[in-house]
From TrEMBL:
Lineage, broadest ranks: Bacteria, Bacillati, Actinomycetota, Actinomycetes, Pseudonocardiales
Membrane topology: Peripheral membrane protein
GO molecular function annotations of the record: ATP binding; ATP hydrolysis activity
Record-level GO BP terms: response to antibiotic
Name under which the protein is recorded: ABC transporter ATP-binding protein
Main location: membrane
GO cellular component terms attached to this protein's record: plasma membrane
InterPro entries referenced in this protein's UniProt entry, alphabetically: AAA+_ATPase (IPR003593), ABC_transporter-like_ATP-bd (IPR003439), ABC_transporter-like_CS (IPR017871), ABC_transporter_ATP-binding (IPR050763), P-loop_NTPase (IPR027417)
């Protein structure tokens, strides 16, 4: 993919604050229609990278092309074509959800009826006449995304849109994000939830300490790790000695409630367990993006 055809093209951008290298030589491209995730723990440099791409912050060095344009200094040509949802959302006081959208839409010449229609996209039709301050955290996040989409931008930037949401609200928001991509939008988003990115993203860049450690589709990153599969059995389903003797087993561990087996030949192990009738309560855990992060950094993932 050439930079001319990319929705986003970032080349060796850097941003420092004193001795802190917040962004330290980051490069990547994002294709039109792609769902691209920038992942990493708090302080990894995700938000600063996004703000540089959006034209909210000037890089110390490097080059950014957003829809073929330079976003800095603030590029008025880009404003109608991008939607931005920041970590901290601000709304107009005392306006209802519908009025919030209509007000944002009016800034771009969007009709009141068209603006209000975005409530359906984010599942807030029944909250149209509720004041923003009476909405739940998840509902406010969805309203914030609707405001970023109300002028029908080509590319949407979302900075940790599911942060601080409960599991139910997070999964509801996943459906919204999938629907946005179905509409042909390019999505660039940051998160520190690796499990979420593994489900939603076409490609991910894993960041830490201002640098990209790895970048690829989630499944490719996980396959490249060559990590063992972990099979967990209820204690008593198989003795520790019998588990250690199974073909393909690399490591075993037993505690008060379960027996765990590590293997790189899961099909063989599972077939043998089935023959022995030891499948009751069985759980299988394959490698995840969190395992990739641990392998890259040598330490536990921290949110």
């Amino acid at each position: 993919m050439t930079e001319e055809r990319a929705a986003v093209a970032v080349s060796d951008i850097r941003k420092s604050y004193g001795d802190l290298h917040a962004v330290d030589g980051v490069s990547f491209t994002v294709a039109e229609g792609e769902f691209f995730g920038i992942l990493g723990p708090n302080g990894a440099g995700k938000t600063t990278t996004l703000e540089i791409i959006e034209g909210l912050r000037k890089p110390d060095s490097g080059d950014v092309r957003l829809l073929g344009e330079n976003p800095w200094p603030r590029n008025s040509k880009l404003l109608p074509r991008i939607g931005v949802q920041l970590q901290a959302s601000s709304f107009f006081e005392k306006l209802t959800a519908k009025e919030q959208l209509q007000t944002f839409g009016s800034l771009y010449g969007v009709s009141a009826a068209t603006a209000a229609s975005y409530l359906e996209l984010v599942g807030l039709t029944d909250k149209a006449n509720e004041q923003e301050n009476k909405l739940s955290g998840g509902q406010r996040q969805r309203l914030s995304i609707a405001c970023a989409l109300v002028h029908d931008p080509d590319i949407v930037f979302l900075d940790e849109p599911t942060a601080a949401l409960d599991p139910q609200a997070r999964r509801n928001l996943w459906d919204v994000l999938r629907e946005i991509q179905k509409r042909g939008k390019t999505i660039v988003y940051t998160t520190h939830y690796l499990d979420e990115a593994e489900i939603l993203c076409d490609r991910v860049a894993i960041m830490d300490n201002g640098r990209i450690l790895a970048m690829d589709p989630p499944a490719v990153l996980v396959r490249g790790l060559d990590a063992p599969t972990h099979v967990t059995l209820q204690k008593g389903a198989l003795s520790l000695e019998d588990a250690e003797a199974l073909p393909g087993v690399e490591e075993t561990h037993e505690n008060e409630v379960s027996l765990s087996i590590s293997t790189r030949r899961p099909a063989e192990v599972l077939s043998t367990l089935a023959e022995r009738g030891a499948l009751d309560g069985l759980q299988v855990r394959t490698a995840t993006l969190e395992d990739v992060f641990l392998n890259l950094t040598g330490r536990e993932y921290r949110a």
